[in-house]
Every structure is written in C-alpha cells, then in structure tokens.
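Q: Make up one entry.
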Amino acid sequence: MSDVARVSSIPAITRFLGALRGFTSKARITIDDVSDDVRKTRQWLESERLPHWRHEVRECQKKLEAVRQELFSAQISGVGADTQFQQGAVNRAQRALTEAERKLKLTKKWMRDYDHVVGPVSRQLDKMDAILVGMMPRAYARLNEMIKSLEAYAAVTAPTPNELPKSSPPAEPPSEEQ
C-alpha cells in the first residue's frame, strides 16, 4: 500500500462532510419518528383497541341475546309462524359476535407479542441512534481536521530553483596522515 495521498478535490471532501451532516440529521429525525410510532402503536393497542373490542363483544352478546329472545317468542307465539327472519337475525348476530371475539383475541395476542416482535427492530434503531449521536461528531471533527490539513498542504508551494539554498561543496574528508 502506498503512503502517498491521492486527493483530487478538497471541495469534494467538504461536500461529503455537508452531505454526511444532512444524512445524520435526517436519520435522527427518522429514528425519533419510528420510535414514537412504536410507542404510540403499543399505547393504541392497550388504550383504544382492547377496550373497543371488549365493548364490541359485550354489545354483540346483548344483540345475540335479544334476537334469540325474538326467535323464541316467535316460535312459541304461533304453531305455523314463520321464524325464518328471526333465525337469519340470530345467524347474523352470531357471526358478528364470532368476529368481535376473533378481533379481541387477536388484539390480546398482539399486545402479548408486541415487545417480542417489535423489540429486536427497535433495539437496532437504538444502536443506530447511538452511532449517530456518539460517533458522528468525532467523524465530523476528523473530516474537518483532514480538510484543514489538506488545505494547508495545498497552500504550500514548492520552492523554485532560485529559492533553494545554495549548497557548499562537500567538505573533504580528513586525511589519514595525521
């Protein structure tokens, strides 16, 4: 590997530093947004969805009981009474209750499994955030130092032959006759 630096554009490094800062800023905002969404989703499951589906199950149970009562009343009110309409209402109410119970069960499952499913991804975001907060400022400082050093190096001009110190003839070695 060569010890020679082959820098063709100091402004390119400066642009890279600016782009890196822009990326870091956008990445931090995105990580914060995703972290907020993870927290809000968990809260939404607990505070909105679970109570909603519990309420729906209770309402569907009440509705099913009411239409069963209507069917029973229709069945005992007349020997040849047509109970097809009431039976259809019972079937619809039963399907609605089954669906509400399914969604309540699914909501409970998501609440139980949420941290297990979302946690590993969330921890990866935390690691990325730690890199952005901890390492990127040092990277900016190193790039700034590099830019300053390269600019200083580029400002140095090679001496012209007239500016070179005049060399004196080499001293003759001492003779051995002494």
Observations:
- Residues 52 and 104 are 9 Å apart (CA to CA).
